[in-house]
Amino acid sequence: MTSSPGRILLAAPRGYCAGVDRAVEAVERALEHYGAPVYVRKEIVHNTFVVESLSARGAVFVSETDEVPVGERVIFSAHGVSPAVHAEAAQRHLDTIDATCPLVTKVHKEAVRFAARDIEILLIGHEGHEEVEGTAGEAPDHVHLVTGPDAVDDVTVRDPEKLVWLSQTTLSVDETMETVRRLRERFPKLADPPSDDICYATQNRQVAVKKIAPDADVFIVVGSANSSNSVRLVEVALESGARAAHRVDTAAELDPAWFDGAGTVGLSSGASVPEILVRDVIARLGEWGFGDVQEVRTATEDLIFSLPRELRAELKSAGQSHTRGRSTSLDVAPH
User: Fold this and answer.
1) Which of 4, 21, 84, 278 would suit a FRET pair with 40, their CA atoms being 20 to 30 Å apart?
2) Percent of the chain topping pLDDT 90
3) Which parts of the sequence bind (2E)-4-hydroxy-3-methylbut-2-enyl diphosphate (predicted)?
């Protein structure tokens, strides 16, 4: 706690990225149009509050496609799925809505294109993450997973002359570049992808945290434990000079002891976090003496992705609006 007025340095950009906003809205619009239940394979985005809120409205989250009753409708999450999942859905005669983030789809297409040229792919990412599984599934015979700099020495390839690296979109920029540097030491002919795979929103949020961290006695990142980009923000804060950093799902997880003697709190949120959760944290910190909120903006984001084409076509044929541009209703407190 602080005995004198404390301040919050609020990172901007923070919270929802365009891909998350699109995916969450896809589930909301599907529930409005089709009614409950609407099945969703995996968590639509990695945020506990979002998943629980959508579940309360009638979304049914399943781990695998075979849990969806034959002939029903299923939405694929923002993290993407492999061709095998699409094939299984077709076998079960499921109507599918693919809410894969377009930036993840870009990486999928890159994997297919390189595999078609018989180029081996060193995929930098976290083992078991849905996005990695989806990308690897596009070219399973050509993909080698590299989990970080320390895994580089274990990589074996058929032809070191024909290699390219791709990455999960939500990684630490600095760690990824270090992994690439070490890979290139081993494989000098390693080619770069045609464009940076780490998503613009991931990079922007990390840059904002880096700007604030040196001035922060404590840095708070709002985000769920299974959110890769949220976990990375905590690491980035510590690496960039914050004296302490913690991740919380909600304001209820804040520990007053973290703020003893602190004068400045840095605050950001992962790309799957609705703004209401950040506002709750600001309110709680205000109760504890941190009433001066200063936004620190390092970039402005105005990218909007259209709804998934399957849903867009259905809404259009029904004479309903199929355009986007609003914030999802999860940005306000649920009724």
Assistant:
1) 278
2) 93
3) 46, 79, 129, 169, 227-229, 272
